Amino acid sequence: MSNRAPSLGIDIGATKTQGIVLDAHARVIADRVRPTEPGPDGVVATALAVGRECLSLAGLDVTDLGGVGIGIPGRVDHRTGAVSTAVNLGVDHLALGSVLAEELGAVVHVDNDVKATALGAADYLRTRDADLTYLNFGTGIASATLVGGRLIRGEGNLAGEVGHVPVDPSAGRCGCGQFGCIEVLAGGGRIADRLAATPFSLPGLLNSAEAGDQTAVTEALRIANGIATAVQLVVLAYGSDRVVLGGGVIRTAPGLVDLSRHLLAQRAEQSSFLASLDLPARVVVLPATYPLAAIGAALSGAGQRGQG
Amino acid sequence: MSNRAPSLGIDIGATKTQGIVLDAHARVIADRVRPTEPGPDGVVATALAVGRECLSLAGLDVTDLGGVGIGIPGRVDHRTGAVSTAVNLGVDHLALGSVLAEELGAVVHVDNDVKATALGAADYLRTRDADLTYLNFGTGIASATLVGGRLIRGEGNLAGEVGHVPVDPSAGRCGCGQFGCIEVLAGGGRIADRLAATPFSLPGLLNSAEAGDQTAVTEALRIANGIATAVQLVVLAYGSDRVVLGGGVIRTAPGLVDLSRHLLAQRAEQSSFLASLDLPARVVVLPATYPLAAIGAALSGAGQRGQG
Questions:
Q1: pLDDT of A308
Q2: CA angle, A242 as apex, A240 and A246 as ends, to 5°?
Q3: Which residue numbers in chain A have pLDDT < 50?
Q4: Contact at 8 Å (CB) between B296 and B123?
Q5: Which of A147, A166, B104, B217 would you call most buried, defined as having the most Cβ atoms within 10 angstroms of its Cβ?
């Protein structure tokens, strides 16, 4: 972990952009957050402002850096740094890597923010040879997996679209057109659609369920079953030792994590095979305040991780 | 592919054991098949006999080899060469790697036969940096995946247990104790159980379905839906460019492959996301007579592949 140049990592989100600088020992020595300005020009301006402020706070010049890494939602070609269909940022297409490289005068590595978060989580857990999946429950569901410490990308960076495996034909139609995808059960977009027809909001759902409201119980179990199935799927597919849960759904209703663990334990009572995997023990939640994606971006920018 | 020592590969199956020798250009220069004698001693004796006959046919001595690779069903620790719970071979536990290494006087790499087949399939398709999954529909269902040409193993070689993702709660109980696993739909064991209560056998099932028998139609669609879901799952999880289908179910009823492609095309009509993946085009079947597992074993024995 030591004897390498410092690196700058920037996590560009729909509402805020967070930058950090890692020193030679991968410790955070500067961090800065700004609201994200939308659109291609806004995204670039925000990233440049945050990055320059971080360098100033760290007392470094860009020439001191081993590299710069960016995490951003949407489809990312990590080889070219091109970003497309980052809908929540108002970006249809943006050659983010080359624009930032020119402005900063540095090598810039751009990756999807879910992949950056997986790298940050492995660093947080101090497992450099990690068999680890980060499962993100945002508006949609996506995952990023490290096997033996290396990111799985697949053809066209497709790997990790686990939200669109249909698992419950009766659960209704998914935005992708299929019926009963995991994302229908536990994706934030579809949860919000269903809750709009009830008196409940996601933050209060588990309390209402515990108070005995049957509609709330049904919905909480539906979401937790989707989370549990996603955990089971990634462990069976990738052999992940740890499954880190995150994203807006988990942040908004953290009690869903224990409910999902409970459902996984129930499944294990039916199945000695599942029991042998001890799925509840593999589920991990990391502090929501920790800048996993920015740190993961900095690590991959420094060429330390995720170049597989 | 050139300028390496020849290697010996042995695929130990429940009924037969197949050996091959690859030359310096990864061409098969000798092959030999024997019925597998059951039990730990029988398995070792069969493998030694086949291996020695292959070397004799190739005009080589064991000291000419760069390595020896073995593919075998069951749980395999590829680092130690230990095999456990190879039920169909009558093997509970066997230190296969060290026993064969001692007898042959060579370095022996042992791996699960599904993983060996994936390596052989990548070699057959001439895709050394393959994003490829081999899906095996035998008594149970298992898969092995190469990402960027490297085998995904996961913690304890768990990766690839995709048969035990529940996808249809109404489909009945799985041998693993859960309900509606993919293996319930398309695993050979459960197919045989269901067909035992009908006038049909698996080889004649598709003909009976085409002739309009509704029981046969229902069962053929159930199996093909399980295959289609498995294909979709591995493409979404791993980003596999090619999904090679094999195993007893596919060999016995090869028409299931086109039926599964047809169902995948139907799913794409509902979903532009699935349509963009062109799943039917990713499905590949290789000649059943080609010794994929023995070749894959030889390649990994030679240290060329799968040591990730």
A1: 43
A2: 115
A3: 1-2, 306-308
A4: yes
A5: A147
Contact call for A156 and B239, based on CB within 8 A: yes
* CB–CB contacts below 8 A, A to B: 139
Nearest CA in chain B to A165: B233
- Report phi then psi at B99, rounded to 5: -65, -50
Buried b (16+ CB within 10 A) or exposed e, B23-35: beebebbbbbbee
Query: Which chain A residues are closer than 8 Å to B272 by Cβ?
Result: 176-177
**Over the stretch A206-239, which tens digit does the pLDDT of each residue have?**
999 999 999 999 999 999 999 999 999 999 999 9
CATH of B7-121+290-301, one of 3.30.1540.10, 3.90.79.10, 3.40.50.300, 3.30.420.40: 3.30.420.40
Q: How far apart are CA B258 and CA B245, in angstroms?
A: 11
Three-state DSSP class for B254?
A: coil
**Which among A78, A114, A145, A152 is the top mutation candidate for probing chain B, defined by the most B β-carbons within 10 Å of its own β-carbon?**
A152
User: Would you call A164 and B238 a contact, using CB atoms and an 8 Å cutoff?
Assistant: no
CA distance A29 to chain B (A): 34
With an 8 Å Cβ cutoff, are B161 and A232 in contact? no
pTM of the model: 0.95
Interchain contact, B177 vs A272, CB within 8 Å: yes
Q: Tell whether domain A7-112+292-301 is in CATH 3.40.140.10.
A: no
- pLDDT single digits (tens) B80-107: 999 998 888 999 999 999 999 999 999 9
Q: Rounded to a whole number, what is the distance in Å from the CA of A166 to chain B's nearest CA?
A: 7
Give the CA distances from residue A46 to residues A17, A39, A95, A120, B293, in Å, rounded to whole numbers and listed in that order.
7, 10, 15, 22, 53
**Token couple for B203:** 């080889």
Mean pLDDT of chain B: 94
Q: Which CATH number fits domain B127-285: 1.20.1730.10, 3.10.20.600, 3.30.420.40, 3.10.129.10?
A: 3.30.420.40
What is the C-alpha to C-alpha distance for residues A148 and A300, in angstroms, rounded to an integer?
16
Domain boundaries, chain A: 7-112+292-301, 126-285
Residue B146 to chain A, least CA–CA distance (Å): 9
Closest residue in chain A to residue B264, using alpha carbons only:
A178
How far is the alpha carbon of B201 from chain A, nearest alpha carbon, in Å? 28
CATH class assigned to A126-285: alpha beta
Tokens of A13: 């989100």
| A270/B177 Cβ within 8 A | yes
Contacts of B274 in chain A (CB under 8 A): 164, 176-178
